[in-house]
Amino acid sequence: MDKSNKSGAEALIHSLHLEGVDLMFGYPGGAALHIYDAIFNQNYVDHILVRHEQGAVHAADGYARATGKPGVALVTSGPGATNAITGLATAYMDSTPIVVISGQVKSNLIGTDSFQETDMIGVSRPIVKHSFLVQRAEDIPDIVKKAFHIATTGRKGPVVIDIPKDFTDPEHKFEFNYPTEVNMRSYNPPEGADTSRIKEAADLIATAKRPVIYSGGGVNQNNASEELTALAKLLNFPVTNTLMGLGAFPGSDPQFMGMLGMHGTYQANMAMHHADLIIAVGARFDDRITNDPNQFALSAKKIHIDVDPASVSKIIHADVPIVGSAKESLTALIEELKSRDLKTNESDISEWNQQITNWRDAHGLNHSLLEMGAQNGKILPQQVIQSLYKETKGEAFVTSDVGQHQMFAAQYYHFDKPRQWINSGGLGTMGFGLPSAMGVQLAYPDSIVSCVTGEGSIQMCIQELSTCLQYGLPIKIINLNNAALGMVKQWQDMQYGGRHSSSTYENSLPDFVALTESYGHVGIKASKFDELESAMKECISLKDKLVFLDVDVDPNEHVYPMLEAGNAMDHMRLSKDEKTW
Amino acid sequence: MKRVIALLMENQPGALSRVVGLFSQRGYNIETLVVAPTNDATLSRLTMSTEGDEKVVEQITKQLDKLIDVVMVTNLSESEFVERELMLIKFTKDSFPENVFDESNIVSKNNKIINVQVVGTSLELDKLISEIDANNPLEIVRSGSLGISSDEKTLTIEN
After folding, report:
1. Quick check: is A568 in a domain?
2. What is the pTM of this model?
């Protein structure tokens, strides 16, 4: 233990180092300058200079999602802090472990409306798991320890540390002692397995005839993918994943029904609706899944495994609540099932799986669109995802922004591994894709990191192209360019008589190829179907370059299936003129 | 049905705003809220009452429990408990309802104004307010409900 005297700023950086942080993202400013000077004088923690604080927080978030390790961002007070807010809310909604450190004005100026002063603790309060306002330099090591503990345990989430400038003053030194453990009487998240109801869960599993395993982001967060897959394989039960849960069960496995919910597959939504047992793991029955909760899966018993007691029976009553770690609770469940030498009702299960196959055959997604060539002379956005999948052999990290392209990526790229698919599911933050890809690429410099985006979303954080040049990040940006805010336009087509209010740009889009090149990267354009596959090949093959592949896609394409609001999950629109009811 | 939730939280800056913020953030309807430090100076006790149904109260309790500064939460209305509220009422001397209050209720008195103090359940206080309505009280101040369980259960922590 390094007990030498340190300033608050030095103590902060050294504490980060002792937490295993070797990379942080940030943007300097007055209130953070002592901290930046301390960063300059050490070699433990690399600092990535972003071009906007939103990018710093998304990058830290992307890093955390891809690695499972907490991401760290550093911003200054006032506008630096408020620019970090969207990133914090994004991480909060998707429960990602990040720590955001904000400089604050000097403690004697707090409350005086001083220059670049914002009440960061107040502004961020509803969108953080917890926050700390440092009141003494000497408290910094203890607060950092607590912040990382809180961010990374239980239901994970963002933590803010707001540090008034005087507490990082290089003139004020104190003996540095980093705590070895955290004791908080007010914070004891569930740890390990909850075995209290495992037998009941096993009983329900033994008698189920139409079971579904429905898993969410919690399985990825808790590294429980292996256990989830083992359970599904042991039982031969069909599996569906939420948008946040993709990759937790292999996307190319025949037992996988695809994503469920708003734009879930026909078979996944039908299976949920007709199920007699739903095993929910690390998922929270949000409104994009259940549609009308009063009509949700009425014939199903629900087993709900979640680390957050407040998520259990929040929307949908859990018949068997299991509040604990997904990984360890699933292990306990598997052990219980094995110890019983459990026989599921195999003929019923096989009949049920056949039913799901029939649904898939009737209205499942067409994963061979690429082979069908141009449609009405246009490139379908789905074909671009299929081409990306083909060229990356399904092994790329894929980040996305928000909108139609996000749904197409979720539907058509089969994610076989957890943490491979990185998107803003809960908050739906446009602008998340590129900066989060930076976090992923820095964590995995040798992997292909692709950002699937649209011409709307990419312009929300496009300034980060400059960061990518500075740090040599060879991200592959796949822009599904339909010259419109596609999802907004889709809703306007469906619900507002086709009145495209402020969802198109009237020929004001930039030349993305030229734009990318002016940032020092490579831009490639594909406008015709014949150009798509060779352009994709070139894009992926340029290993050391950031490539922006701008693809003109059919502007009239909608995302289907789509749940019909106010109904049960079996009410879906399947195309512009087909619906299930 | 009126439900009363009590909690202990760290007596430190920001803790109360987290609790109060949670109510508005999650759309919970709170009727009364009382906060004061406990005899353990590091802890504050907060008591709130709400009309929410059982499901809502369960959610409130769970969400409160999730707040890092909250040490312990209990839904007092889950079992038998005592609920009490303090009320102060100001009358002009001329309109003072002598048949309703006795000397022990009076907390201040001068040639114009009489202030009284009443302790009771919030239902009793509601009833009293309608009884004295005709006397046109100048001001009525209520403390909000406090609660304590009737059995050996306590909301305290071992130090």
Report:
1. no
2. 0.95
